[in-house]
Design a protein that fits this description.
Blueprint lengths: L10 H5 L3 H8 L6 E4 L4 H8 L22 H10 L8 H14 L2 E4 L23 H10 L9 H4 L17 E5 L8 E7 L2 E7 L11 H19 L9 E7 L6 E8 L11 H10 L5 E3 L34 H16 L2
Parallel strand pairs: 5-8
Antiparallel strand pairs: 1-3, 2-3, 4-5, 4-6, 6-7
């Protein structure tokens, strides 16, 4: 008899996947990271507020105002000041300290990272943050991270007493930024303590992945990682999903994240019904799924990832001395500079 499609979802189960819950135990096989908590309630209010803008003072260098001293300039200033402004000098300084230590960072909250907002920073180094304003801009532009802001979405599908909701504290995670080869990212599915399936994460076709020897190498390396470094250390419910970035020679891997075995976690090249069927076979070898052809139905077409979340540049109004015209001019200058180099 096959188990239910998903394990029972409880607040404790979900909280075992927030970054601060699993990272201390697996830091030796993960990416260097620092968790900042507690965060002021104002930070959550900022992320929840309408519009895309960065808090005052979060740029690395002060931006000279282009406004003149005439009356029109004063009117513009008054108009720009409508609505609440935010400033987090202590958090800015902490972020700058970590950037100095790591060189550059990419952010996430308890569960979610702003991958859907990578378009707001230069495409040559997606998600690379070298100033607090970069961190804020990524988080503010992301649909993904909004999941982490409300206990209603965090504990969606869980049963709990609404008069006594589970304790939940927002956290900001800064991870050391590395250029990542997406072709070496994989998602691994564990059900009832059994490594069932492995899926390619990036939805591009990679010719080298079709080689049987390469596929066998990937399966064996991920099984070794799971059996040697994860299986005995994961002490919670034995249903979980973990993401791995493999080394260039595909012999080892670094854990990027853990996710609940739940509808909210994308099964990628599987469906959860297919994973359930694979699990009932109890094979000693997990099933590997890859994009095996450019014509694969899941293969990426020319459309950029997360295009639903892209805004025209005119929609980005940055504070800290930049109104929308200044930002647009700066952006155009950057485009011109890149075309002349």
């Amino acid at each position: 008899m096959s188990p239910p499609l998903f394990p029972v979802q409880t607040p404790d189960y979900i909280l075992s996947f927030q970054f601060s819950s699993w990272y201390p135990k697996f830091s030796s096989i993960s990416i260097k990271s620092i968790v900042i908590r507690p965060l002021d309630e104002a930070f959550k209010e900022y992320l929840d507020s309408d519009g895309v803008f960065v808090p005052e003072g979060s740029d690395n260098a002060p931006v000279e105002s282009s406004l003149s001293d005439d009356e029109d300039g004063d009117e513009d200033t008054d108009d720009a000041a409508v609505g609440r402004s935010f400033s987090f000098p202590d958090l800015d300084e902490r972020i700058r300290q970590i950037i100095r230590e790591y060189g550059a960072v990419f952010p996430k909250l308890n569960f979610s990272s702003p991958k859907d907002a990578s378009w707001v920073l230069p495409p040559s180094s997606p998600l690379k943050c070298t100033a607090p304003s970069d961190v804020y801009l990524l988080l503010k532009s992301s649909d993904f991270v909004s999941h982490d802001l409300s206990i209603d979405t965090v504990f969606e599908g869980c049963r709990y007493d609404t008069s006594n909701p589970p304790s939940y504290q927002l956290e900001l995670v800064l991870r050391k930024w590395y250029p990542i080869d997406r072709s070496r990212e994989f998602r691994c599915f564990v059900r009832e303590g059994h490594l069932t399936g492995i899926s390619q994460r990036d939805t591009n076709f990679y010719d080298f992945m079709n080689e049987p020897q390469t596929q066998q190498k990937i399966i064996e390396a991920l099984q070794r990682l799971w059996e040697g470094d994860i299986k005995s250390k994961w002490l919670g419910q034995q249903d979980y999903i973990f993401d791995v970035l493999m080394t260039r020679d595909l012999s080892r891997g670094h854990v990027l994240d853990f996710n609940p075995y739940a509808p909210r976690t994308d099964p990628l090249l599987f469906t959860y019904e297919e994973l359930s069927s694979v699990f009932t076979l109890r094979s000693s070898t997990p099933e590997l799924r890859i994009i095996d052809s450019p014509l694969h139905p899941a293969a990426t077409r020319n459309a950029p990832a997360h295009q639903h979340n892209m805004l025209p540049i005119e929609a980005l109004a940055l504070s800290s001395g930049r109104d929308i015209n200044e930002f647009s001019n700066l952006w155009q200058e950057e485009i011109q500079r890149s075309m002349t180099h």
